[in-house]
Specification:
74% of the residues lie in helices and 0% in strands. By secondary structure, the chain is an all-alpha fold. It has one domain. The longest helix is centred in the C-terminal third of the chain and has 40 residues. The radius of gyration is 21 Å and the shape is globular.
Length: 246
């Protein structure tokens, strides 16, 4: 790890300040992040839409369950952005074996349910450990950041819920003032009310995940970097290396 190559200034930050750094990193690298992320999100979205034939609730479940797999591509881009590197989809495609297919089963099973996955995902994906060393490292990285990792997941879940409600409420906001929007007529009097409701709610959820998920990954990644600064004094090493290379 070439600590001096980081384009971000490493120092010990408060936990919430560290997550804010991640949001800013995602904003700065937004073009690379979304150019790569949306290209893999769209096929998952199409797969989810196709699952409407199975059940009305299946598309939302597909998107929700695929999040950790989608996160891996976002993390790949952000890990390069932290070193000032721009990532293209070609770079992601060349690294697909490590990013998309490595640890696929565990990513979509028990790790999917981890409440602090944005914090621990960099350990699984970037550090190249396995077995006992990996488990020990995950425990070490979580440390006293465990609650903040849980807070990130909770906060973004609530943000998803708020944005989802806001998108659904647009139908009310765009109705002319002299008219009233009748949800009952839209859903209950429709020939297939359950199906229409599922289309609307899934469409809102899909848009929100497309926008919000990269920021969730970035918040956890920055918290991970902050934890490594605490454990390994990266900030001191960065300053010393830069001082002696001038």
């Amino acid at each position: 790890m070439r600590v001096e190559a980081f384009s971000i200034r490493l120092r010990r930050r408060g936990k919430i300040e560290a997550t804010d750094l991640g949001i800013r990193l995602c904003q700065q690298a937004a073009r690379s992040v979304f150019a790569c992320y949306l290209r893999i999100y769209v096929p998952v979205l199409l797969l989810a839409i196709a699952s409407f034939e199975l059940a009305y609730w299946a598309p939302t479940l597909v998107i929700w369950w695929a999040k950790p797999w989608l996160d891996r591509s976002v993390l790949f881009v952000l890990s390069r952005a932290a070193f000032g590197q721009t990532t293209t989809f070609r770079d992601l495609w060349q690294a697909q074996r490590d990013v998309w297919w490595r640890q696929l089963l565990v990513t979509l099973t028990w790790r999917r349910l981890s409440p602090w996955r944005s914090l621990t995902q960099p350990v699984y994906q970037l550090e190249g450990l396995s077995g006992w060393k990996l488990r020990k490292r995950v425990v070490q990285i979580r440390g006293d950041h465990r609650n903040t990792g849980l807070l990130i997941t909770t906060a973004f879940s609530l943000a998803e819920l708020a944005l989802w409600s806001a998108l659904l409420s647009l139908a009310l906001w765009f109705v002319p003032g002299e008219q009233q929007f009748n949800w009952t007529a839209m859903f209950l009097e429709n020939e297939h009310p359950g199906q229409l409701a599922s289309y609307v709610t899934f469409g809102a959820y899909a848009v929100i995940v497309a926008f919000l998920e990269p920021f969730y990954v970035a918040a956890g990644f920055a918290l991970y970097l902050n934890r490594r600064v605490e454990l390994e004094a990266w900030d001191v090493e960065q300053e010393l290396r830069r001082a002696f290379t001038r």
